[in-house]
Amino acid sequence: MKYGEKAIEEAKLEVWENKHPENDYEVSIEFPEFTCKCPRSGYPDFATIKIKYVPDKYVIELKSLKLFLNKYRDRYISHEDATNEIFNALKETLKPKHLEVIGDFTPRGNVKTVIKIAF
Of 1, 22, 98, 99, which has the most beta carbons under 10 Å away? Predict the structure, then answer.
């Protein structure tokens, strides 16, 4: 196993202390190279994962987020399940004031899917 594969395999979301919890500011993150596999066909699915959140006590450490999202590349998982899992992991880890996750999947077979979850 190469060092990058090992880092992805061991990835866990990490946080930093938010030094400005008194301010309601928005953090926007885009991950344009998200991949997973169709649970039915095994074909690769590609997406841009868009994350917006208003932090409370914590902000996400970006490298840990990148490695965490790369863990999906070899998983057989639906668009809906992948987006919901990412949302739930971020919600549990960050406990933000507001969170929105969008899975904007590239068309395949002439079908485009966009999954949006927010609170």
Answer: 99
Candidates 1.10.760.10, 3.30.1130.10, 3.40.50.300, 3.40.50.1820; correct CATH number of 3-118? Answer: 3.30.1130.10
Q: For residues 22 and 102, is the Cβ–Cβ distance under 8 A?
A: no
Angle value at C-alpha 28, between 38 and 70, nearest 5 degrees: 35
Helix ranges (H only) for the chain are 3-9, 62-70, 79-94
Catalytic residues: 38, 45
| This prediction's pTM | 0.95
